[in-house]
Write a structure and sequence with these properties.
It contains ten helices and ten strands. The strands form two sheets. Strands 1-2-3-4-5-6-7-10 form an eight-stranded parallel beta barrel, surrounded by four helices. Strands 8-9 form a two-stranded antiparallel ribbon.
Length: 252
């Protein structure tokens, strides 16, 4: 199977270290695990992006994308993306992180569309990253995700599908990927047990066999990124386990 390019989100290191101070060690771990790209926050190393780019170059790593919220400093994000040679920006948090008010969702989607138009003019791809709360119904009936997908301007934006949050939201992630394949430009792979207890890929309850079979059909997907919000294991170990799982199980 042919999969999109693969990266790792640095968030797995954030609860275990001062990531800005210890970036080199985190990058070494990501590279040792076998990843060739990273995703990071939209203001990460904003004080000296050239130094961060040099650290990446020394290790043969690229930036897959930046991740932020609607309120991010877009000019700063453009500056960082240009320095890193990256073209992808993931946005999350529409609907004020869980409102049941449809008007809030629609206002946020309008704002996201405006942001995405600015990104498109700068040559940047905008992807909306879901969590589970968007799949809950609003007081008016439709779910937040229904409202987002109904009003998103797909000429300038698409989805960053987090498969674990889709699963937690009560949906089959592989079916979701197949159904909306034409509107997916980025994917987050994540695994969990219990009540949102994050674990390395292949260690939890995610139906990865069906998810991985759905990935090659995502012709517009620019990146697939391993993401683990927290880890009981050392982050470097979690990265290595996740990368080995993808390689040994799926040849990825």
């Amino acid at each position: 199977m042919t999969y999109p390019p693969l990266g790792a989100q640095l968030i797995v290191f954030e609860k275990q270290t001062d990531l800005e101070r210890n970036t080199a060690a985190a990058l070494d771990a990501v590279r040792a695990a076998g990843f060739e790209a990273i995703e990071c926050g939209a203001a990460f190393h904003a004080a000296d992006p050239a130094a961060f780019k040099a650290m990446l170059d020394q290790r043969g790593l690229r930036v897959a994308g930046l991740h932020g919220a609607l309120a991010l400093d877009l000019d700063l994000a453009f500056k960082l993306l240009d320095v890193y040679g990256a073209r992808d920006l993931c946005i999350s948090g529409l609907g004020n992180w869980g409102t049941c008010n449809s008007d809030v969702y629609l206002k946020d989607v309008e704002q996201l569309n405006a942001l995405a138009r600015q990104c498109a003019a700068h040559g940047v791809y905008t992807h909306y990253h879901n969590h589970a709360y968007e799949f809950a119904p609003t007081s008016e009936g439709p779910s937040g995700m229904d409202l987002i997908m109904g009003d998103l301007d797909y000429t300038v934006a698409d989805l960053c599908v987090d498969v674990a949050w889709v699963h937690i939201g009560g949906h089959d992630p592989a079916m979701f990927l197949r159904k909306y394949a034409d509107h997916i430009g980025y994917v987050h792979l994540k695994d969990y047990i219990g009540d949102r207890h994050w674990v390395p890929l292949g260690q939890g309850r995610m139906p990865f066999d069906s998810v991985m079979k759905a990935l090659p059909a995502l012709k517009k997907a620019r990146w697939v990124v391993y993401e683990q919000d927290t880890s009981e294991r050392p982050a470097a170990e979690a990265c290595a386990i996740s990368r080995q799982y993808l390689a040994k199980t799926y040849g990825y």
